Amino acid sequence: MSEKRPVIFYLTKPKDLVRERLGYQRAWAKMGIEVICIGTMGSIGENVQKLAPDQELIGILHPEIWPGAPLDMWDHAVPSLCLQIDTEGITQRRIRISRLFDGAVVFHPGYDVIFSKAGIRQPILVPHAVEREQFELPEMERIYDIGWVGSTGAAIFGMRRKILPLLQERYKLNDPFRRYSMDEMARIYCQSKIVVNISKDQYLEDANLRCFEAMAAGALLFTFMPSELTGFGFREGEHFIGFHTVEELIEKLDYYLSHDEERATLAAKTRTLALAEHTYDNRAKTLLAIFQSQKLVAEAREWSREKRLLEVIFWTARFGELDRPFRLMRQLPRGIWRLKAFFYIGWNFLSQTRYCFRANIDEKW
After folding, report:
1. How far from 34 is each of 30, 61, 210, 212, CA to CA, in Å?
2. Where are the domains of the chain?
3. Beta bridge partners of 267
4. Neighbouring-strand partners of residue 10
5. 3-class SS at 244?
6. Are residues 198 and 163 in contact, defined by beta-carbon separation less than 8 angstroms?
7. DSSP strand E in the chain: where?
8. CA distances from 270 to 83, 197, 278 (A)
């Protein structure tokens, strides 16, 4: 790293600096790296000009599938990464947008191989992480048999709606059907003997963020088997407890709630591991090394300006915007390029209309 103060541009708005995005930002701040949120619609060059003389841009981070990217991103010899957090969802679209960036950070085991086979030149497997400070709380009495924090309303959470009432009848839980802030979540987990993880119905093996938060809080984690946690080096029966059915879950909950010392020993061992190896501090160092490697390998760097512009139009329209795609379309040559752009805008408008209609039905349900 040079003697100048390093800067990373986030292709997001300040108001969207939450969860993983915020965790990485805070970790980089500890390392003396400033994060500046510039959105996706501005210019990299214009924002570089706003930097102080002693500042230097070292990387560009696209923190999820947001609309597009700055049109001049590929004109700068600065590596870019995109986070593909829920990698298992809309995977082909995630692969498509990853072609715009020098590296794609995937959060699920095996998807680095999938992305690589699809032509993504620098896929990086990085698990979820926690902020150490959030879970290094003074020791509290574990007043809940089971702690639960998570959404339950969407159609994809049918298993949660099935299991949670059964647990409420049998064990002492916090209110599982209300929303909690991140600080409230950490406190509840630190007051819980066990945390049961129930992911999306179609992806119960998910090693999601809640798994790592539960382990960092010193609660014994229960999760469906098979689990992606084993792909990250965690061992069932040593770092977490796995189950295949509701009946097996109840049986194992009864066992570990009646064997306090065994449960506490397992949970404490896993907490030490989580706070040592699975923090944003560690993850930020991993991504910093990628930025410092200066591998400018994005497929989009080899495209024509028209093809890049067309792809930005696609992604901007994909997220329900209309004004910007039509404005960008005017920069394309007349003929086939504009025809493709018009098709992208129309197709995405219809797709989003259908999505909103279905989401409205799910919400009412």
Report:
1. 9, 12, 27, 26
2. 5-129+281-302, 132-278, 305-364
3. none
4. 37, 61
5. coil
6. yes
7. 5-10, 34-37, 55-62, 80-84, 103-106, 123-125, 144-147, 192-197, 220-224, 241-243
8. 26, 16, 11
Measure CA 203 to chain center.
Answer: 15
Specify the pTM. 0.91
Residue labelled with tokens 């969407």: 154
Q: What pLDDT, in 10s, does the model give residues 306-339? A: 999 999 999 888 876 778 889 999 999 999 999 9
Task: Please give the Cα distance from 120 to 101 (Å, whole number).
Answer: 9
CA nearest 148: which of 216, 195, 206?
195
Pick the CATH number of 132-278 from 3.10.490.10, 3.40.1620.10, 3.30.40.10, 3.40.50.2000: 3.40.50.2000
pLDDT at 2: 52
Higher pLDDT, 120 or 137: 120
Q: 221, 197 in Cβ contact below 8 A?
A: yes
The pLDDT confidence band at residue 357, using thresholds 50, 70 and 90, is: very low
- Name the strands in the sheet holding 192-197, side by side, starting at the edge strand that comes first in the sequence: 144-147, 192-197, 220-224, 241-243
Helices (H), 171-322: 182-190, 209-216, 246-257, 260-277, 280-293, 305-318
Q: How far is CA 243 from CA 29, 124, 150, 223, 277, in A?
A: 39, 29, 19, 6, 25
Q: Residue 123: exposed, middle, or buried by beta-carbon count in 10 A (0-12, 13-18, 19+)? A: buried
> 5-129+281-302: what fold?
Rossmann fold (3.40.50)
Kind of pairing between the strands at 220-224 and 192-197: parallel
